[in-house]
Design a protein that fits this description.
This protein has 299 residues and is of the alpha/beta class. Helices cover 41% and strands 15% of the residues. The protein has a nine-stranded parallel β-sheet with strand order 3-2-1-11-8-7-6-5-4. Strands 9-10 form a two-stranded antiparallel sheet. It starts with 6 loop residues before the first strand and ends with a helix. Bound molecules: ligand LX7YND4F and cobalt (II) ion (CO). Pathway: Polyol metabolism; myo-inositol degradation into acetyl-CoA; acetyl-CoA from myo-inositol: step 2/7. GO terms for molecular function: manganese ion binding; myo-inosose-2 dehydratase activity. Pfam families: AP_endonuc_2.
């Protein structure tokens, strides 16, 4: 089962201020966000776009709260820009995370993604990547994997609704095209479920390749509305598609914890359930999630 010395629990700042939709929690400060994560019993945070870009300022804000940075999302644009552009951006992002002690860089290809468009129907307009685009992404990711290893870090690929790597078939193709040592996986329960996949089956297939975990559940009645009303990803978020573990009704948490435990998963489990903070108090939901995890793992 889990080694409590090597399993850490964090939160994603998107639960407080949504980087993709700043009107959701835009008024909340990064200080409040970090303080409430710590208050809820978490020791780690991912980096949000309101966090200070100055290393010393961020380190001080983390240290006084006993918090660490465990990851920061990186957007790859191998399908729409020269590979060198993503590589140069990645090196800066990697070095900032390295200076903060993070060991993982979660990322996804977003060049042709529709996730950021509020008026584009998610299921009807999800991009289908060409063979050439898959090849560019696979080769680019392997180069980023090599660059991460230079700093004793690893990338972790985040399949994501609306990006072209959304379904298990699309993920399988990318995983088959890339070296597992260079391109590990970020397991996100919410995106697997949103895509109509069985997150336990996906985890069972790739658990040995998982280096970082995002925990979120899905509200089934909102998922039905996203499909029926042709909503976009961001409209789904505003309507509450995602919620924290222990509050949704779609993810088989016993199955997820069983596989992670049997495979002695080590690293971070991050609670990431972006929803409207005016409707779902981020502190209340962070406490709910931490209590749920404690009940399931004893940690
Ligand atoms: O890991 C993630 C990063 C966010 O920006 C994204 O939209 C969210 O859904 C997610 O899972
Ligand atoms: Co995620």
């Amino acid at each position: 089962m889990f080694n409590k010395e090597k399993l850490h629990f964090g939160c994603a700042p998107i639960n407080w201020t949504n980087d993709d939709l700043p009107e959701l929690g835009g008024e909340l400060t990064y200080q409040q966000c970090l303080s409430e994560m710590a208050l809820a019993g978490f020791t780690g945070s991912e980096i949000g776009n309101k966090y200070p870009k100055d290393l010393d300022t961020l380190k001080k804000a983390l240290d006084i709260r006993g918090m660490r940075i465990c990851n920061a999302w990186f957007s790859c644009e191998f399908t729409t820009k020269p590979m060198e552009e993503t590589i140069e951006n990645f090196k800066k992002h990697r070095d900032f995370l390295h200076a903060l002690g993070a060991k993982v860089i979660g990322l996804a290809e977003v060049g042709v993604s529709i996730q950021g468009y509020e008026d584009v129907p998610l299921f009807k307009k999800a991009p289908i990547l060409t063979d050439e685009q898959f090849e560019k992404i696979a080769r680019g990711l392997e180069e980023l994997g090599r660059l991460a290893k230079e700093k004793d870090m690893e990338i972790a690929y985040h399949y994501h609704m609306g990006t072209g790597i959304q379904s298990l078939d699309e993920l399988d193709r990318l995983m088959d095209m890339t070296d597992p040592q260079l391109v590990p996986l970020l397991f996100d329960t919410g995106h697997a479920t949103f895509a109509g996949e069985d997150s336990v089956a996906l985890l069972e297939k790739y658990v040995k390749r998982v280096r970082h975990v995002h925990f979120k559940d899905v509200r089934s009645e909102v998922l039905e509305r996203v499909k029926k009303e042709d909503l976009s990803f961001l409209q789904g978020v505003k309507e509450g598609i995602f919620t924290v573990p222990g509050d949704g009704d779609m993810v088989d948490w016993d199955g997820v914890f069983k596989i992670l435990g049997e495979n002695n998963y080590e690293g971070w489990i991050v609670i990431e359930a972006e929803q409207d903070p005016a409707k779902a108090d981020p502190l209340e939901y962070a406490i709910k999630a931490r209590k749920f995890i404690q009940e399931k793992t004893g940690i």
